[in-house]
Design a protein that fits this description.
The strands form four sheets. The protein has a nine-stranded antiparallel beta sheet, with no helix packed on it. Strands 2-1-12-11-10-9-8-7 form an eight-stranded antiparallel beta sheet. It is built from 13 helices and 21 strands. The chain has three domains: 235 residues, DD-peptidase/beta-lactamase superfamily (Beta-lactamase); 92 residues, no CATH class; 84 residues, Lipocalin (Beta Barrel), CATH 2.40.128. The two termini are 31 Å apart. The chain is an alpha+beta fold. 24% of the residues lie in helices and 23% in strands.
Amino acid sequence: MRLLSRGPQASLRRLALLSMASALALLLAGPAAAQSPPGAALSLASDPALIARTALDAERGTVVVGLLRGGKASYGAAYNPEPPTPPRALSSESAEQPMFEIGSVTKVFTGLLLAQAVERGDLKLDDNLGQLMAGKIKAPLSPAVASVTLRQLVTHTGCMPVMADGVTGGPALASQMRAFERQELYDALPRIKLLGAAPPCAGAYSNYGMALVGLLVADRYNTTWSELVRARITEPLGMNDTVILLGDKASRMAPAFAGDRRQSLLDMKAYAPIAALRSTAADMMVFSRAILAGASGPFGPAAVRLLTPLANYEGAEIGYAVMVRGAEGARRTYYHAGVTEGYRTLWLLAPDTGEAMILLSSNTRAPLQRVMLAIGKSRYPVPTVEVPVDADRLAEYRGEYRVTKSKSLDFTVRGGRLLVRESGRGYNPLKPIGTDRFTVGEIGAQIAFQREGGQVVGVTLSQGGAQVVGRRVREGALVD
């Protein structure tokens, strides 16, 4: 699980993580970001235009937000600069809503295609690459790679790298996304070096693995991934503005930016199943309504299957490429996010309230984290009443607590208050709310310490419906 201190950065290097998968995950903001940022009171009941303005802030470009509530969709937009002629009001009937690259929200469509195939009995989650790649490549697979299953690929637990051939970022990443043909992607598989000795691994986001899922599902039906999306999803729902090839729709694409720099569209071939779709807020509301309808909706039981948790991921769970936050039996939030070279997207479902949101931005640096944090805080509130604590006992909590192989939480005491940071980030002051319990209320995070034999040995950080657990590995900074 990634603990982010500031809004996600947009660069080719970060395109390796096209999903922005930590949206509504544990977002441990630094001191500046934690001071009641704009949008702190936003929720799924907010005015979509307000959410759009918060998400765009001072960046260039366009943001369109669609909200589904009470079965009705509403839309709002923000523009910078404001167009000389006021744009027509957005509505579900509008054939002229701006279009955006939806980035890795495309993976949800790939996950749904797999859910449909499994529901029909045409594929099984335990089908492995040794079986599925038979006859498709000449070089043999290693036993570990051959053992990777569709379940592991669609949940990012298959130990697969981000991209093929050791590519992790920079121009090589964009080049591979744009250039790889289907057979090239398949032929790279015997060269793949897994991130662990053998699957399953802890969640490791893999564009390459998800591209394999899309291509293998299409192979099962002797067709292409794009044709399968059209036949099984967009055409049945009348999603006429959800396409890969723009044709006469090209003029409707919101101009793309990274900060103040104009960006090109990201066209893909074999990697299309991970991020190739372009769409509108209206079409994504149609899609959201179909998923929320569950087994009685147009996708039938496959809609339920899509959201069914299959594995642990980043302190919570993941279904068919859909991130899941919230405990079983409690309110759950389902989402995915996306980043391309000029666009940023967040798609979210809240079945317990029948709500959905799509946020489409044409600037990859738009500060969507404000919206993410606010919705996480509204969906999963933390206690706000401060409980007095003996300042002399705060030193018991000092130290480093390892939460992943590469991430730690550091606690120190300054001015009679306990502070926390992700290693290398700025400190946040904590508010005591009970015995061994604290909050960072501005970002909706709660921290609980664990003891053994009266000694503090571990910590749990909860935020946005997810949790990470850390074990104390050393004592930390001195009391100031």
